[in-house]
Write a structure and sequence with these properties.
This is Phosphoadenosine phosphosulfate reductase. By secondary structure, the protein is an alpha/beta fold. It is about 45% helix and about 15% strand.
């Protein structure tokens, strides 16, 4: 029986929020605090297990104030293990490692027919790094980093505080940790250089790259706004995620206001007025028609002025 996870957790303080999760854990599984920076929530439901790695702040910022995995449990009747972390943790910590070790020793992951590890950015790193705990699982990583160890990623200076953390001891270098999984998928924006380099470090025979061009840093948010994220995760769980099935989902960007505006900006920066005008004409048929009509008028006016000047 699918547990009822429909309780609205929005607007709660951090303490009240964890209290609400504790109550859900007591009813459907457990909540375990793993020091000051991490917690694990298990919801016992179906024979398929979704393991998500989520930032506590991001989970609380969702419309219902709940971890992303709650909606997927409700939709599919899956079991759920959500690892929550504070923003600065990068899912590094002895208490968390010990918890994962205990799951391995108890044969926890062996009780499920399918296991999918999922996370975005920090959570994407963690999904890859901890997937070693469940050989044969599937991993779906959104914009993951491979490591922030300066010896291997000295070129990535975006997170100076995180560079001081230990990415070498337990569950450290994420690309090495995915060697035993059945399949791993990496979603990234190839126009973001640092993200593209990290994605390249994950290249293995069991890895499929899923480029999300111009999705920018918030790939997870972008895909969710296009109603693609949950179907993507469901394909990964079902074993039907491929370049082709992803491409079909990614076509939804053609109706995304955010994506079309980002694409137009890129075309303007690249000084490609012809393509920009074509995009604006396409945009006239969308809900953002007013914006594209205004931009098209400016592009056409600029083209007219150029013709007059060169005449």
């Amino acid at each position: 029986m699918t547990p009822d996870l429909s309780r609205d957790l929005s607007g709660l303080s951090k303490d009240d929020w964890f209290q609400a999760l504790d109550e859900l854990g007591e009813e459907h599984g457990y909540l375990e605090r793993l020091g000051d920076e991490h917690a694990a929530l298990f919801i016992d439901a179906g024979t398929r297990l979704l393991v998500t790695f989520e930032l506590r702040s991001a989970a609380q910022a969702r419309p219902n104030g709940a971890p992303l995995g709650f909606d997927l449990v409700t939709r599919n009747g899956w079991s759920l293990l959500t690892i929550l972390a504070e923003d600065s943790s990068w899912f590094r910590g002895a208490r968390l490692y010990g918890f994962i070790d205990r799951l391995i020793d108890d044969g926890f992951f062996e009780d499920f027919d399918n296991v999918l590890f999922y996370g975005a950015h920090q959570g994407g790193y963690a999904a890859g790094a901890f997937s070693v705990a469940a050989p044969g699982a599937t991993v779906l990583m959104m914009r993951p980093v491979a490591t922030l160890d300066p010896a291997y990623a000295g070129w990535d200076r975006r997170y100076p505080e995180a560079r001081r953390k230990d990415f070498n001891s337990r569950f450290g270098y994420a690309p090495d940790m995915i060697d035993a999984v059945e399949e791993a998928f990496v979603c990234f924006d190839p126009t973001m250089q640092a993200d593209a380099i990290h994605a390249a470090l994950f290249r293995r025979s069991n890895v499929t790259a899923l480029p999300c061009r111009l999705a920018r840093p918030r790939i997870e948010v972008a895909l969710e706004s296009m109603d693609c994220l949950f179907p993507l995760i469901e394909h990964a769980m079902a074993g039907t995620l491929t370049n082709i099935s992803f491409a079909k989902l990614w076509r939804a960007r053609r109706d995304s206001q955010t994506y079309l505006r980002t694409l137009l900006k890129r075309l303007e920066v690249d000084e490609r007025p012809g393509l920009a005008a074509r995009l604006c004409r396409y945009g006239l048929g969308t809900s953002d028609a007013g914006f594209f009509e205004e931009r098209l008028a400016k592009i056409e006016a600029a083209a007219t002025r150029q013709k007059v000047a060169s005449a």
